[in-house]
Every structure is written in C-alpha cells, then in structure tokens.
Amino acid sequence: YHPGCWPGEMIWLNPRGESSSEGSGYDDGVDVDRIPALLLLAPVSSYFVLCFHSNGDDLGRFYSFCHRLRVCCSVHVLAIEYPGYGICPGTQATEQTVNRHAHVAFRFLTETLKWPVEDILVFGRSVGCGPALQIASRHNVRGVALVSPFLSLRDL
C-alpha cells in the first residue's frame, strides 16, 4: 500500500495529538513522528474497535479484515501500523515502539475523538495481542478479543 490508499480512511496519527488525513510532509519518508492508521467509520455505531495486526501483516493486508469487521459488526475501527511495517517509518518494531504507537492510537480515540473508554473494544491477533493487552491492562475498556495469542511470555 502507499500513502494515497483509501482516501478518507487512512489518517496519520501524531504523538503530539494532531491527526491528518492527507499525509502532508510524509512524501520524503522522513517524518518519523507520524503513524499511519486506518479509520473506518460505520454509519451508526456505539463502539470503536482498536485493532492490532499480526506479525505477517501490515495495514495493506489488514484492511480487508478491518473493513469486514466494520460492515459485519457495525462498529467503528481504528487500526495502526507498527514501526518498520508497511509505510510506517522506523527500522524495527520493538515492544516499546509498538506499545508507544498503541497508546498514541488510544489517546486519539479518547482525547481527539472524545470516545468513551467504556465503549472501546481492543482486538489483537498474534503479535498484536501484546499491545492489545497493554492497552486493556491500563484502561477499563469494554472488552478484549485475542486471536492466536502467546501461550507463554516466558517462552518468547
């Protein structure tokens, strides 16, 4: 995928709390502060699902799942990219950098969109279970869905 994919559905989250739908300042590939994200809004919904993809995915591959989730469950969806995945700046995703992106996305939902914490569901698949559990352990979200989670952190 590329920065112009999914007009109106791809946004750029900024750790400083701003967001942009046009991706300005990103063309040169050096804007390391901006985080690519999918913002898929349902016509009517009471819930937001914050989604974290697996290690083998990026937003390009995860888009169809997020789209089906929005349509089938009538929920809003926000999915973020990890550093070094897809078009996201950064060389390698680490526990710290992925969790940082997760918290930026959560703050976008609660502070920018003013979405109530109790109406946010968190979804993680595979490696995405880590940031999903990080968010869920710190906030009183509506619920958590984990697909193919780790069996043991000790074994990682």
Describe how the helices and strands are arranged.
Elements: E1 10-13, E2 19-20, E3 35-40, E4 48-52, H1 59-73, E5 76-80, H2 95-112, E6 120-125, H3 129-138, E7 143-147
Parallel strand pairs: 4-5, 4-6, 6-7
Antiparallel strand pairs: 1-2, 1-3, 3-5
**Bulk shape:** globular
Spans where pLDDT lies below 50 across 5 or more residues: 22-31
The separation of the N and C termini measures: 30 Å
Structural class given helices, strands, pairing?
A: alpha/beta
The largest β sheet comes out as: 7 strands, mixed
Which percent range fits the helix content? 25-40%
User: For the largest beta sheet, what order do the strands appear in spatially?
Assistant: 2-1-3-5-4-6-7
Give the helix tally. Answer: 3
H/E topology pattern: EEEEHEHEHE
Quote the average pLDDT. Answer: 88
Total beta strands: 7
Strand content: 15-25%
Radius of gyration, whole Å? 14 Å
Task: Please provide a written account of the structure.
The chain is of the alpha/beta class and 156 residues long. A 7-stranded mixed beta sheet has the order 2-1-3-5-4-6-7, with helices on both faces. It has 3 helices and 7 strands; from the N terminus they run ββββαβαβαβ. The termini are far apart. The protein has helices spanning 59-73, 95-112, 129-138; strands spanning 10-13, 19-20, 35-40, 48-52, 76-80, 120-125, 143-147.
